[in-house]
């Protein structure tokens, strides 16, 4: 009887201690993430002039087009805006965001606002919406092209293009014709590098004709991503040996 009471008391004590540990650990993680997020937002400004040029020279290759697949994550506009600014800093000319749910495309203004708060006056962000873009000649400074892609830009665009081609006088169109037209609609070059967000590594019906040579890396989450982590991912991409299907 005494042993049963002792075991029960020990169980309650261990359970109580573990519950406190979980709460303290969760609180510390939250505070740490907030501090890191706050610091990298402001420290990046000082890094840009001194640390960044030296750091970039150590990266073997810079992708021309970075695409970010949000997966099941809800978009964090400030973190996505940071990725755009970092593309400007590292001379990545194109960045696209793929949100198969379409939420990011509906709230594109929020992303534009967050980017406008972070970019320098001489930086130029060129937004692409379908066949339209905000490109203007005569500006001085860095530039990056930005495009938001959703699932409707994948299978639906193939179906619509096939219907359009079938209604033309040239009925002898082939796969190459469809591929060429899809490339024109997409505007951007094929992504060199893709970040896949979330715990599940899935492309979520990303337009398949665009990712034939893309190197995909899992980043876990785009939320609270730091500039150092971003550079490390570029390092990892630079070390990848792309065989181009060979």
From TrEMBL:
Keyword Magnesium: yes
Domain of life: Eukaryota
InterPro entries: Nus1/NgBR, UPP_synth-like_sf
Cofactor(s) required for function per UniProt: Mg(2+)
UniProt key word ATP-binding: no
Pathway participation: Protein modification; protein glycosylation
Subcellular location: Endoplasmic reticulum membrane
Major location (coarse): endoplasmic reticulum
EC number: 2.5.1.87
Keywords assigned: Endoplasmic reticulum, Magnesium, Membrane, Signal, Transferase, Transmembrane, Transmembrane helix
The reaction(s) this protein catalyses: n isopentenyl diphosphate + (2E,6E)-farnesyl diphosphate = a di-trans,poly-cis-polyprenyl diphosphate + n diphosphate
Positions of transmembrane segments: none
Signal peptide (UniProt feature, chain positions): 1-26
Matches recorded under PANTHER family: DEHYDRODOLICHYL DIPHOSPHATE SYNTHASE COMPLEX SUBUNIT NUS1 (PTHR21528:SF0)
Protein family according to the UniProt entry: Belongs to the UPP synthase family.
Protein name per its UniProtKB record: ditrans,polycis-polyprenyl diphosphate synthase [(2E,6E)-farnesyldiphosphate specific]
Organism (species): Molorchus minor
């Amino acid at each position: 009887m005494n042993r049963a009471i002792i075991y029960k008391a020990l169980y309650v004590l261990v359970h109580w201690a573990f519950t406190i540990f979980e709460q303290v650990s969760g609180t510390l993680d939250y505070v740490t993430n907030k501090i890191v997020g706050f610091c990298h937002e402001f420290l990046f400004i000082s890094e840009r002039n001194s640390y960044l040029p030296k750091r970039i020279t150590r990266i073997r290759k810079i992708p021309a087009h970075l695409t970010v697949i949000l997966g099941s994550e809800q978009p964090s506009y400030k973190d996505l805006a940071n990725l755009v600014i970092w593309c400007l800093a590292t001379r990545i000319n194109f960045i696209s965001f793929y949100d198969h749910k379409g939420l990011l495309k509906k709230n594109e203004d929020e992303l534009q606002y967050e980017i406008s708060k972070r970019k320098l006056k001489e930086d130029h962000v060129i937004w692409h919406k379908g066949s339209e873009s905000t490109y203007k000649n005569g500006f001085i400074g860095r530039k990056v092209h930005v495009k938001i892609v959703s699932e409707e830009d994948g299978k639906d665009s193939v179906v619509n293009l096939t219907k359009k081609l079938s209604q033309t006088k040239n009925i002898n169109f082939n796969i190459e014709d469809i591929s060429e037209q899809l490339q024109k609609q997409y505007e951007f070059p094929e992504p060199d590098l893709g970040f896949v967000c979330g715990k599940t590594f899935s492309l979520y019906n990303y337009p398949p004709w665009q990712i034939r040579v893309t190197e995909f890396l899992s980043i876990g989450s785009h939320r609270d991503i730091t500039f150092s982590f971003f550079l490390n991912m570029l390092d990892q991409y630079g070390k990848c040996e792309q065989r181009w299907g060979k």
